[in-house]
Every structure is written in structure tokens, then in C-alpha cells.
Design brief:
- The protein is mainly alpha-helical and about 1000 residues long.
- It is elongated.
- Mean pLDDT is about 90; it is low at about 1-25.
């Protein structure tokens, strides 16, 4: 069959004619053709409209597949978000499509555009490059190469880029640039330099090429060319974002070329433009500043360098120390040298830093945590052949003489087998200082030991030896060993050459008191008189007190007129504390039978000193004087006031008996009966109750009503014993004599036998008290407490005060603070002995503090501070407790005065803690400058209580952290970590803050 040929013009015309005649039937095909034409024209929006319409009207599978291809490609070309999904869906529906390679290429290109380079590599590898158009092939190679570069496969990336550079068109220059970059990144600097040199003539690549050329010259240490290339780059692109890096390498290059001015200019620009400058460049900048004498700027740059533990930081710390030293900031210089000295990356730097560190510690007398001694020892151990070794040996001896780290110095000296006379001199002073530290902290046994060791060394340091005698005497006095105290005070007075000092005068005062305690009033009088002749400060409380004691000594010698003169003098010298003087003066008037004047003086005491401990005594003596003046009504009024206002005073019991006697003599038997019964009822078991019962019997006999007395006596039961059997009395007295002779074992057996034989004996409370005292002396605390409690339960008042005192002491030592607090309250209510009264107030304060009762502690501290003759140590403790109470009660401002006062002496635990608390209060109030000043003083003066100094270091770091000075904070924390040896929470506090500084 012969094929029929139709002219093309006719075909075209017939298609047109046919299309006109049957439009409705052939419309879908026309939509496809128009969509394809628009796709070819890259009118993707129009293409999508036509092809979507076509797909809705057509059932031709082949053309629909082609339409889907163009739709997916159009979505890609338009950058639509779902393009990748359409392309992948196309491959899922048509896996054998002739367009599969191109679609894989487009999917890879889409992922490339999204920066998903691993996905891009996968999909590009799915495409057969030979099936792509030449234009697509070049794009394929470039995109695959760039993706490989971004994923670190530089070798394969370079291969693709190199091929494009040879035969490509569109991506040729870009590929040449990336080849150069890869050569640069892989260390093929010569190749990269050739390529970048060629590219720098192309406008699009000039800036980046000049940048890398400068970098290559810098890496190759061609510093002159770095400068020239850098200048060209800065001139051509003054606003480039890469200029900071150019400043950096030009600054480095200038430094290596010896042009430090240019280095400072470039590196300072770099540092100001960089958010996180490189440490090495900060170090170079700091060194340049230092060499130019700009020490503050040097410290700033170097301080930003030391963020890591490496050789660079070690070197930076050495320069930093020198910079601070030149700026006369020895504290920061010391810490910087310390940081360099504790690193071991560079031995020479370590040696120089350690020497400077040791020297600064010595020059500043820095106490810290014992470094002043150990650093010199460490240096000699680490660098025995150092050129500084001889100087360090000399300094070590000086340190022994000047250090405040007394225990560390003593430990060091004790290691020396043959100490020189100079070192023994230092040792004697160190032992003396350790003794005073122990004394200040009321560790009296330790103080005596240290003073004794200082004395035993001989006369290497006469001043320290004499001081040791004085303070050992003071320690003995506090322990109640008055004979030993006198011996040491006398030795001090005989040996010291400094006889115009306050201490020399005070020694006579102390000797006087020791003799006074021993009731050697003649010797006491002699020394008190010497004291008042020597004392230059007549305002000191001791001066007035000495006149009181002179009066007492004269009183005991029955020289009443002279005694009165001295009491008057004491009252004139210290009117606010003149109650004792006034009382003694009144008492003397009574001895001289001037009862009216005595009453006037006692009234003055009651009026002017209403809080005095002598008011009850004054009322009693006033009553007695009225009796002697036959003014029974006035006498009764005084005794009634005494029993009413001071019911727990021992004088109230005596006054009650006196009242009964007055009323009986005034023929007022009913009132006498009432008075006697009141004594018996209120004070059962007391000697006064026994007297009152005897006198009451006499009253009832006088009233001829013995039956009433018998009935009353029967109601008393065993509370008041009227008669004592001879066997009871003799058995007890025999046991008591053994106790009084100090035969504790014999006394214990006899007293126990007495209580067994006479379980309701008349002397049961006495026996129990003596047994309790023996148990207490032998540290049988539970037994002692049981027996003291029996004494108190008996109602007998003879040993009531001492029983409360010992019971409270035992409970306190057992840490039963709640029970101790109640016992101290009872003791305070009944105490007439000034020492027991002070002990009660002190115990109350301590228990309140220990049981977390700030309001009670505050009241107790204020009450204790009213005592006129507190030791400095107790005053300090009371002010400490008061300050802590104010802080807990949120009244911090009221704590400031106490904290300032007691923090002046950081030798004590209270003083050291107060120093820290004072700084903490300032910090909490955001008074950082005041807090810093307090802590700097703390660091400078030191303390044996290293925990509180360590807390001070941490607080100082907190201050600097709040101020944004991370370097200073890190300095203090690192120094603390290197030197603090305590096993407590300090280490965790350090690491917590250092961890935050690293973030």
C-alpha cells in the first residue's frame, strides 16, 4: 500500500479548520499544548493553570504524566514550599519516567537551596549527569561540589570545582575561588596564593581574595606583606565586616616587626570590634601596653586573656602581676603572681612568678591562709638552685619575725634541726602570739601552754618573754590559780624595762586583785595603791575600781575613815557605776554608829541606782539602822519593802524574821505570827524558817495558845524540822569534815551512809549537795545533776544558788539548751553572787542564741551588757549575739554598730565572723564599695579563723561578679581554691561561681 503525502500547509490548515469545527471535543488537547508552550516560555504560573485544567478534562495517561512532570518542575522553578514533595511524588508515581534524572537533579537542587547539603548530595547522586543538559550538568557539578565542601569532603569538592574551572562558563570564576579556598583551608598556601592573586583582579572576588592573601602571608610569617596587603584591603573596603580580622593580623605583624605603637593601634581596633577577641591577641596587646608603660590598659587586656588553664594564661598572669605591681596594686599583683606560680606549663615563668609572689606576701605582711611561710618553703623545695634561693632564705627568717600566720610559722620552724639564734628569737615571739590568740579566744589551757613554751626558750626575745609572763599570769587569774598568777605578774614587774606603759601599771592592778582574792588585804592594798599612782588614764573603769578595792582593803583593816575616803573618790571618778562605793560608804557609817547618815546614804543609793544589785542590801541595812534608832515603824516599812520587792533575795528571809521580832516587841503578836508564818511558808527548809518557827512558838506561848502552835506545826509535815537528834547531827558532821578536808572518797562513803541511815535527816539537802559537788568534780555529770536536783526539790535555800548554777552548767555542757535556759533563768532570779549572776545572764544569752530565739537572745545580751565589770571577751560575745539577733529579726541597721566594734579584732572567732557579716550586710544593701573596703581590711589583717576569711573571699568574688568584673572574681576564687585547706562547703561555693563565670 502506497503511503499518502500531505503538504504541510494543508495539514496545518486542516488542523485549524478541524479545530474550529469540533472545539468542544478537542479542548483538553489544546489546554495541554498551551500549557507546554507556556512551560517552554518559563511562564510557570500560566503553565500550571493550563495543565491543571487539562488534567481535569483529559484521560490520556501519557500526556497526564507529561503534565505532572511540567507541574512539578514549575513548582520548583517558582520556589514553592511543596516543590520537593511534588517532585518526589512524581518519581513515586512514575518511577520509570524518562525525566527521572532531571527530577532527581531538581530535588537535589532544591535541598541545596535549603542548605540541606547531605540530602542534596544524595539526590544529586541519584541523577545520571549524562542525561542532563550541558547547562544542568555545570549546575549539577557546582552544587554537588559546594555541598561536599560544606560537609567537609574537600578533596572531592576540589575535583568538581577544578573541572568547572577548566570547562565551565556560568560557575567558572566561582569554582576557581573555591579551589583557591580549599587549597588555603588544606594548607596548600602557595597554590592558594597563586589562585587568589589571579582572582583579586575580578571585582566580585577582589575583597575576599585580598583578605585570604593577607591571611596567607600572616601564616607564612611574611609580616611586611601582611602590612601592605592589609593596607590595600582597608583602603579599598573601609567598611568591610572582615576589617576586624585584618586589624588583628596587622597588629600581630606589627608586634613581630617591633612596631608596638602600630600593634596597639591595630589590635585595639580589633578588640573593640570583636565580641570575643582571641586570647593570644589580647595577650600581645597587653604586653605592648606594658612595654609602653600603660599598665592599667595592660591589666585590662591581660585580664581578659586568662580564661583557660594553659601556658598562655601562665605567661599572661606573670605580665599581669608586673602591671599591677607597677600600678602599686599589690593585692592584685600578689594574686596574679600566685596564679602564674601555681601553673607548671613553663618552669621559668613559674620560678619568676613564685619569687615575686613570695616577695609580695612578705612586703605586704599578707596573712591569708598560711602562704607567708609555706610559699618560701615551697620555692626552696621547687627551685633549690634558683638564683633567688639565697634571698628567699633571708626572707624566710624575716617572715618568721613578722608573719601573722603564727601556727604555720611554728610548724615550719619545728622542722629545722639546728635553728639559729635569730630563728629562736622568732619562735619565742610566735609562741607568745599564739598564746595571746588562744587567750583572746578563751582557750586558757592552750594559752598557758604557749606562754610556758615561750618562757622556756630563754632570753632570745626579752620583750616576748616578759609579755608571756604577764599574759600567763592573766590566764592563771582567769582559772582561779591566784598564787601562780601573782608569781608571773611579779616576774613580769621585775624583768620588764618598760615601766612607763599601761601594761606595767595594769600588772600591779592584777597582782592587787590576786591578793584580794586570796584575802591578803595588806599586799592587795600595796599593789592597788601602786596602780593608781602609775595609771595615767583616770577615765578608765579600772582606776575607779581600784579605789573601791583600796577602800575594801582598808575596811578589812578596820581603817573605816580612810576606807570611806576611797569609796567617795571611786564614786566621784565613775558616778554611773558608783553604787558599790555608796553602799560601802553607808555601811561604814553604820559601823561608826552614825545611823541617820547611813540611812541617808542608803536612800541615795536606792534613789540614784534603782537597778543596782545592792538595793536589797541597802533596804536591809536601812531597816537595821531604824531598829537601832528605835524607830520600829520605819524599820518595819523598810523590811516590808524588801520582802515585797525582792522576795527571792536571801535578805528577804532575814527581813521577814526581823519583821516578826519588831511586831512582837511592839506588842503586835498577830502581825508577828503573820510575819513568821510568811517566812516559814515562803522559805521552807531555810535556816530562817527554822528560826521563825522557834520564834513563832515563843509568840504562841506569850499568847497562851500552845495548842494553836502545835496544830500549825503539824500542818508543816517534814518541811521544817524542829528538833534534830544528836546521832543525826554527829553522823552528818563527821561526813562533812571529810568533805571539807578534801577527802572526796571518804566523804562520799560517809555522806551516802548518812543518807541511808537518816533518809529524812535534817542535813539531807547538805549531804546531797556535797555528794553532787564530788560527782561534778569527777565529771559524773548525770549523777551530779540528779543530786543537785534533789537539793533544789528539798526547798532548802542554803545551797540553792550553787545548785542552780551547777545544774545549768551541766545541762549546757550536755547541749540540752532548753533545760539549761530554764535553769539559768532560775539562777538569775536567786543569784546574789555577782559571778553567778553574770554566769546566769551569759548562759541565758548563749542558750537563746543556740536555740534560735533571736528576741530572747537580744534581751539577754542587753541585760548582760548592763553588768559593770564584764571582761572584754564577754562584752565582745554579747555584742556579737546582739548583732546576730538583730540580723535575724530583720533589723540589720541596728546590728552595724556592734559588728563594727567587734570586727576590729579578727583574732577572735566572733570578730572574724563579724567582719564577714558586716561586709555581707553592706553587700545585701548594694553598698559594694563599703563591703569591698571591709573585706580588703579583713584580708590585710588576717585571722586565725580561716573559714570566715574564706567566706570573705567568696563574697568579694560575688561583689566583682555583680559589677561585671569577672577577671577579679576569678582571681579571688582561684587564689582561695589554691590556698584554703578547710573541709567544708567552701570548695563547692568556689566551683559553683567558677562554673558560672565560664558560661
Amino acid at each position: 500500500m502506497k503511503r499518502i503525502l500531505i503538504p504541510l500547509c494543508l495539514v496545518v490548515g486542516s488542523l485549524a479548520a478541524s479545530g474550529q469545527r469540533s472545539y468542544q471535543f478537542d479542548a483538553p488537547d489544546r489546554l495541554f499544548i498551551e500549557g507546554k508552550e507556556l512551560f517552554g516560555l518559563k511562564n510557570y504560573s500560566g503553565c500550571i493553570d493550563k495543565l491543571e485544567a487539562y488534567k481535569q478534562r483529559s484521560a490520556d495517561a501519557d500526556l497526564i504524566q507529561e503534565a505532572d512532570y511540567m507541574l512539578a518542575c514549575s513548582a520548583y522553578e517558582q520556589g514553592r514550599p511543596h516543590a520537593v514533595e511534588l517532585l518526589k511524588a512524581y518519581l513515586d508515581v512514575y518511577p520509570a519516567s524518562r525525566h527521572a534524572d532531571e527530577v532527581n537533579f531538581l530535588i537535589g537542587s532544591a535541598h541545596f537551596g535549603q542548605g540541606a547539603y547531605l540530602k542534596a548530595i544524595f539526590w544529586l547522586n541519584e541523577s545520571d549527569i549524562d542525561m542532563l543538559s550541558p547547562e544542568q550538568q555545570e549546575a549539577y557539578c557546582f552544587r554537588l561540589a559546594y555541598s561536599l565542601l560544606q560537609t567537609g569532603d574537600m578533596e572531592r569538592a576540589r575535583g568538581y570545582f577544578a573541572r568547572i574551572g577548566q570547562i565551565g562558563t556560568k560557575y567558572r570564576e566561582a569554582s576557581t575561588y573555591y579551589v583557591a579556598y580549599i587549597d588555603y583551608a588544606t594548607g596548600k598556601y602557595d597554590n592558594a596564593l597563586v589562585e587568589f592573586t589571579r582572582l583579586k583582579d575580578l571585582p566580585d572576588y577582589k575583597e575576599r581574595s585580598l583578605y585570604y592573601i593577607a591571611q596567607i602571608y600572616f601564616i607564612q610569617n611574611k609580616y611586611g606583606k601582611v602590612i601592605s596587603e592589609g593596607k590595600e584591603l582597608l583602603a579599598s573596603y573601609p567598611d568591610s565586616e572582615d576589617n576586624g580580622e585584618i586589624y588583628r593580623i596587622m597588629g600581630n605583624a606589627s608586634y613581630h616587626l617591633g612596631d608596638e605603637d602600630q600593634a596597639i593601634q591595630m589590635l585595639s581596633k580589633y578588640v573593640s570590634s570583636a565580641s570575643d577577641p582571641l586570647r593570644g591577641d589580647l595577650y600581645i596587646l597587653g604586653v605592648c601596653y606594658y612595654n609602653k608603660g600603660l599598665y592599667s590598659s595592660a591589666a585590662n587586656a591581660l585580664g581578659r586573656t586568662v580564661r583557660e588553664n594553659d601556658a598562655l594564661s601562665q605567661n599572661a598572669y606573670l605580665y599581669l602581676g608586673q602591671s599591677y605591681l607597677k600600678s602599686k596594686d599589690k593585692n592584685n599583683a600578689r594574686m596574679s603572681f600566685e596564679a602564674a606560680a601555681t601553673s607548671s606549663f613553663d618552669k621559668q615563668v613559674k620560678e619568676a612568678a613564685m619569687y615575686n609572689y613570695a616577695l609580695l606576701i612578705h612586703e605586704t605582711a599578707f596573712a591569708g591562709f598560711g602562704e607567708s611561710v609555706t610559699i618560701f618553703e615551697d620555692f626552696l623545695n621547687d627551685f633549690p638552685n634558683s638564683k633567688y634561693a639565697d634571698k628567699v632564705n633571708d626572707y624566710l627568717v624575716e617572715v618568721y619575725l613578722t608573719t601573722k600566720n603564727y601556727q604555720a610559722a611554728l610548724n615550719s620552724i619545728d622542722k629545722i634541726k639546728r635553728p639559729s639564734a635569730k630563728i629562736l628569737e622568732a619562735k619565742q615571739d610566735i609562741l607568745f602570739q599564739l598564746g595571746t590568740q588562744a587567750f583572746t579566744n578563751m582557750e586558757l589551757d592552750r594559752a598557758v601552754d604557749r606562754f610556758s613554751r615561750a618562757i622556756s626558750l630563754g632570753a632570745y626575745n626579752p620583750e616576748s618573754r616578759n609579755g608571756a609572763y604577764f599574759w600567763r599570769g592573766e590566764s592563771y587569774y582567769r582559772q582561779g590559780e591566784y598564787d601562780k598568777a601573782i608569781s608571773d605578774y611579779r616576774t613580769y614587774l621585775n624583768n620588764t624595762r618598760q615601766r612607763d606603759t599601761d601594761m606595767y601599771a595594769l600588772a600591779h592592778y592584777n597582782v592587787g586583785y590576786s591578793y584580794f582574792k586570796l584575802k591578803s588585804y595588806g599586799e592587795a592594798l600595796n599593789h592597788f595603791r601602786q596602780y593608781v599612782n602609775l595609771e595615767s588614764d583616770q577615765q578608765t573603769p579600772a582606776y575607779a575600781d581600784a579605789y573601791n578595792r583600796i577602800g575594801d582593803c582598808l575596811f578589812h583593816d578596820r581603817q573605816f575613815a580612810m576606807a570611806e575616803e576611797n569609796y567617795t573618790r571611786a564614786a566621784q571618778l565613775q558616778p554611773s557605776a558608783g553604787d558599790y562605793s555608796v553602799y560601802q560608804k553607808g555601811f561604814l557609817l553604820g559601823l561608826q554608829k552614825d545611823y541617820k547618815e547611813k540611812i541617808r546614804v542608803m536612800d541615795r543609793l536606792i534613789r540614784e541606782f534603782p537597778e543596782s544589785q545592792y538595793v536589797d542590801d541597802a533596804l536591809f541595812e536601812k531597816g537595821r539602822s531604824y531598829v537601832l534608832l528605835d524607830n520600829n515603824q520605819a524599820a518595819a516599812a523598810s523590811f516590808e519593802q524588801l520582802t515585797r520587792d525582792f522576795p527571792r533575795s536571801s535578805l528577804a528571809r532575814k527581813a521577814g524574821v526581823q519583821l516578826g521580832l519588831i511586831y512582837f516587841n511592839d506588842n503586835q503578836p498577830e502581825k508577828a505570827v503573820e510575819a513568821y508564818k510568811r517566812v516559814i511558808g515562803n522559805y521552807p527548809g531555810s535556816e530562817e524558817a527554822k528560826v521563825a518557827l522557834q520564834d513563832l512558838k515563843s509568840v504562841y506561848i506569850e499568847l497562851n495558845d500552845i495548842n494553836a502552835f502545835a496544830a500549825y506545826a503539824n500542818t508543816l509535815g517534814g518541811n521544817v524540822r524542829f528538833e534534830v537528834s544528836e546521832q543525826d547531827s554527829l553522823t552528818y558532821l563527821a561526813a562533812e569534815k571529810l568533805f571539807m578536808r578534801g577527802d572526796n572518797e571518804g566523804a562520799r562513803r560517809s555522806l551516802t551512809n548518812y543518807l541511808r541511815t537518816f533518809p529524812q535527816g535534817a542535813f539531807g539537802p547538805n549531804a546531797n549537795f556535797y555528794l553532787a559537788s564530788i560527782a561534778f568534780a569527777q565529771k559524773e555529770q548525770e549523777e551530779a545533776k540528779r543530786l543537785f536536783s534533789l537539793v533544789l526539790e528539798s526547798g532548802d535555800t542554803k545551797f540553792r544558788e550553787e545548785s542552780w548554777a551547777r545544774k545549768a552548767e551541766i545541762e549546757y555542757l550536755e547541749k540540752d539548751y532548753a533545760a539549761a535556759m530554764e535553769s539559768f533563768k532560775q539562777l538569775q532570779a536567786v543569784a546574789e553572787n555577782p559571778e553567778n549572776r553574770e554566769a546566769a545572764k551569759l548562759g541565758l544569752m548563749r542558750c537563746a542564741e543556740l536555740t534560735g530565739q533571736p528576741q530572747e537572745a537580744l534581751l539577754a545580751a542587753n541585760d548582760l551588757l548592763k553588768e559593770p565589770k564584764l571582761s572584754p571577751e564577754i562584752v565582745s560575745e554579747a555584742r556579737y549575739v546582739r548583732a546576730k539577733a538583730y540580723i535575724r529579726l530583720k533589723q540589720e541597721n541596728k546590728a552595724l554598730a556592734d559588728l563594727k566594734a567587734i570586727s576590729k579584732d579578727t583574732r577572735t572567732a566572733h570578730g572574724a565572723e563579724a567582719k564577714y557579716l558586716l561586709a555581707q550586710l553592706y553587700y545585701d544593701n548594694k553598698e559594694d564599695k563599703n563591703a569591698e573596703t571591709v573585706l580588703m581590711d579583713f584580708i590585710e589583717n588576717g585571722t586565725p579563723h580561716s573559714y570566715w576569711l574564706a567566706r570573705g573571699f567568696v563574697l568579694l568574688a560575688d561583689i566583682y561578679i555583680r559589677q561585671g568584673d569577672d577577671f577579679q572574681a576569678r582571681q579571688y576564687l582561684t587564689s582561695l581554691r589554691n590556698n584554703y585547706k578547710g573541709d567544708d562547703e567552701i570548695a563547692a561555693m568556689i566551683e559553683d561561681r567558677l562554673g558560672k563565670l565560664k558560661k
